[in-house]
Amino acid sequence: MGRRRGEAEESAGGRADKVCGSCGRRIEWRARWARDWDAVRWCSDACRARGVRPVDRALEESIRSLLAGRAAGATICPSEAARAVGGDDDAWRELMEPARRAARRLVAAGEVEITQGGRVVDPSTAKGPMRIRRAR
Predict the structure, then answer these.
(1) Phi then psi for 38, rounded to 5 degrees?
(2) Cα(115)–Cα(103) distance, rounded to whole angstroms?
(3) At 29, phi and psi to the nearest 5?
(4) Interval 30-68: pLDDT, tens
(5) What's the mean per-residue pLDDT of the chain?
(6) How far is it, in rounded angstroms, from Cα 89 to Cα 48?
(7) Closest Cα partner for 126 from 109, 113, 111?
(8) Exposed (0-12), middle (13-18) or buried (19+): which is 86, by Cβ within 10 Å?
(9) Count of alpha carbons within 13 Å of 72, Cβ hemisphere only?
(10) DSSP code string of 15-84
(11) Do 37 and 9 meet the contact criterion of CB atoms below 8 Å apart?
(12) What is d(CA 87, CA 90) in angstroms, rounded to the nearest whole number?
């Protein structure tokens, strides 16, 4: 049986897999991080600069509340969370990528799963339309 995304697993060379604290993608090990691997939290300078803002936490909470109001196996689209936080005008469109990042962080925490075509996918590599459901 596979591991959950939030669980550490020893990879080649004895390094535990890590997930970026901002975007929720898997952090690829780099030789220059060999001495500081335990302190690495971000996958890039952009993620380090962005961090996790209050709007990101609001999107995470929106995803949780939308899923709580649905049946156990039901899914939501990240745009639903973006609309709930951004309002009815077009401001929600700017929140689409932050909503996808919030979903990836929740996957890393073991709270949700990201699906495409009804199958669970790796959020680090998923491209295109996605759905979010509670973790099973």
Answers:
(1) -65, -25
(2) 11
(3) -65, 140
(4) 777 677 777 778 777 787 787 778 988 999 999 999 999
(5) 81
(6) 30
(7) 113
(8) buried
(9) 1
(10) PBPEE-TTT-PEEPP-GGGTTTGGG---SSHHHHHH---HHHHHHHHHHHHHHHTS-TT-EE-HHHHHHH
(11) no
(12) 8
Q: What is the pTM of this model?
A: 0.75
Q: Rounded to an integer, what distance in angstroms lies between the CA atom of residue 77 and that of residue 114? A: 10
Lookup: tokens for 121: 């996918």
The answer to whether 13 touches 20, Cβ cutoff 8 Å, is no
pLDDT over threshold 70, residue 14: no
Strand partners, 16: 10
11, 109 contact by CB (below 8 A): no
Q: What does the alpha-carbon distance between residue 9 and residue 81 come to, in Å, rounded to a whole number?
A: 30
Residue 132 CA to residue 106 CA, distance in Å, equals 10
List Cβ neighbours of 86 (8 Å cut-off, separation of 6 or more): 92, 93, 94, 95
